[in-house]
Fold this sequence. Notes:
Elements: E1 3-10, H1 13-25, E2 31-44, E3 47-61, H2 65-75, E4 84-87, H3 93-102
Antiparallel strand pairs: 1-3, 1-4, 2-3
Helix pairs in contact: 1-2
Amino acid sequence: xxxxxxxxxxxDAASADVMARALVAERLAACVSExxxxxxxxxWEGRVEHGxxxxxxxxxxxxxLDALTARVRALHPYELPELIAVEAVGGLxxxxxxxxxxxxxxx
Length: 107
């Protein structure tokens, strides 16, 4: 089973907290780290925008990615939320096993 780290930016701490709690409670993520103070620069609707955001680092598995993506789209206040997942190619084996265990839907 592949462990992934998904990155998602949120406009504020409140929306980041709602998303983090829901993803963990629903076993779509084992852990979500919230990193405030991210400054993003991006092009949107033909203009260059700047904004302060909270970055979520979501630890999940490849098997949960589709469900996690759907949940992020449902919860996120942005019209087009950022969600990028990368594979964890290494790490502490017991931690990676824990991520897999916490995202299993076998309760």
